[in-house]
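Provenance and format

Records in this collection were gathered into a single text stream. Each protein contributes a sequence line and a token line. The two records reproduced below are adjacent in the stream.
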Amino acid sequence: MTKLNRSIERGLTVLEVIHTSGASSLAFLAARTGLSKPTLLRICATLEHRRWLTRRSSDGCFQLGSAFPHAGGMPDLVDRLVEVSKTRIVQLTEETGLAVDLAAAIGGGRTEIVDTTRVFRKHGVYPDSVGFRPSPILSALGAAYFAGLSDSGRAEALKDLVRRLPREDAAALPQLPKILKSIAEKGYAARAPGHWGRAVDYGELPAAIAVPILAGPEVVGAVNLVWNAGDQTVEAVAENHLARLQATAAAIGESYAALG
């Protein structure tokens, strides 16, 4: 009988656990696989390097990455955005005390949240946001990205969007010119008052401000600050932290463009 490769077998075991259980902490993986944490760190670092795994900024949990076969994951350009952003969004959270979401462009005027620093006990907002596609009109991230598009890009995106907008977004569509004008004047997009991004079982209504991420002339995503709406007003957060948010977006865009 041919001798098996233990390293490959261990790596596949880790992937099986994450594929079955979803995002997993190192302690959870150790309990499920029987492997030591140092061994798991080496395995996960290797898989992360190959993009079969990604590690979330919010809690350090591992989840399937874009290169995992048939995972329906993110394209290479999105991986690049996550890579150049991960330390910067953590730093922004440390500087502001607020949670940060990173959204990547996925085509058709839409974005998808691909990383977050949300921790419920610190920020009081629903943490499991990765993979969610925010409203292109009513969310801060979606509206910021949409505002960052060129006029022609926005018009093209609208042709695709209007056919499949949910009811709440379709009803808000006539307000889009007003929303875009406000973003241009204030320098940021804000979540529409009272808008829930998704059904949740806990947490308070969040508020958010966001700006687009530009790599040269191309808008590749958006980044936000998000917090419990009852804690601070949008205006107060913008006054105190907008410059940091804009600087973070600019730094991410420059790093993204530099990778070619």
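Adjacent record:
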Amino acid sequence: MKLTQLSLFLENKPAHLKVPCRALADAGISIMTLSLADTEQFGILRLIVRDWQKAKEVLENAGCVVNTTEVVAVEVEDRPGGLADLLDIIEKAGINIEYMYAFTFGRGDRAILVFRFEDPDEAVTKLQAAGVGVVEGVSLYSKGK
């Protein structure tokens, strides 16, 4: 139920984002979704790919420092208020969100969001108990092949 996300610290300078993107492209690895957050001096690139172990090796061989983190993909109704309703459930369950971002695709009338929760295992259990669709990696990874 959890996905492995790759996180890279990048210096906030021209062409530094290109290094990991080019390395993955040259290795034939598609980025399923990403998030880039920055500060004045550095950025954090967060990636989800189908084969995270291979991607991690490729990125490290390209000189990148790569950390892995467990994240959870959750379905949300793709309509006005869908996210607000999901956040109500998360708040009532007492789940802490560290950050989130979205996939570029959905499933039918549902969008897919990626959440980094303080305790991913507890979050999955509580979300499923509340009837929230937690997306398995296998179904995400088969998308768009």
